Amino acid sequence: MPDDAPVAVVTLCDFVANALGSHGVPRNEAATVAGLMVEADVYGYSTHGVFRLRQYLARLAGGGCNPTPDIKVVHETVATAVVDCDDGLGHLAMAAARDLAVKKAREAGIGWVGVRRGNHAGPLALYVRPQAEAGMLGMAAAVGSANHVPPYGGTDLLLGTNPIAFSAPAAGADPFVFDMATTVAAMGKIKTLRQQGKDMPEGWMVGRDGKPLTDPGRRSEGFLLPIGGPKGFGLSVAIGLMAGVLNGAAFGSDVVDFTNDTTSPTNTGQFVMALDPAAFGLGDDFAAKAARIFDNMRASRPLPGHDPVRMPGDGKSALAEAHRSGGVPLNPALRRDLNALADDCGLAPLFPNAPAD
Fold it and tell me: What pTM did the predictor assign?
């Protein structure tokens, strides 16, 4: 395989699983996490996929992440539950929470499952798309894995990017899947620009002097900006209450920076929700009605100079199919980093002919 060619999904999954296994993660759990990490890249969420492997390995090596957690439900009602991740890899707890939420929604109409003592778990889209594919509505949110945002009008870093995602079924190729940070840009995008030696646009971050900050290498000198000013700040706090405080997880000054501190448990909090339209007297009618509404929106005449209207999630199914059949493209900087990780883990390089840094 040429070193600039897309990487087969199975090859990438095996590599990631072996890297995790080299740090004590059991085979089955390593395969589960690797599958979800690669799935993020398959659907185009490259800032939250295999790119994150270095961070996860660092936390496993440092002791901040438990390679063999005892993940279990610690509180439960008919429609709700709390999952304790035991400081394990976040993907494991979030996948369990998603599946339990769907099961409860089938039985009670709604399932809401919180996670505590977790870790970073990749893009939230991974934990809402399956609900839409099962004919349900989904929602998930998380307290960010580091604080990069001050309260609106302040300068103390007390909030993370605190993402939230929604999904809904719709007749047609793509369900509605909307995954966003409550900041103008996710920190993952800034880290990938740093890895590639590129600047970030003005408006993503400002320095403590209030002036635009565009060098991603200087991100620690400033802070991210919330979407919509005080509205984004308020939304971020609301997410922190539901994903953090409600689950007995970290929020505010209790949040541990999972990149700079690899030894401390993060107690990351998240939640996953599933809602069955059947609980409202609807079945497949919901998907059909949603598709008609979405088609009306797509048909809206674009403003001059704008592309045609797209709905969140449009094109993701085709993109995923193309990646599953033709491989996942990885940028040169990430290829070099994966080779370096292979060397650290005692694995064969994924790209044996790639130039070193």
Answer: 0.93
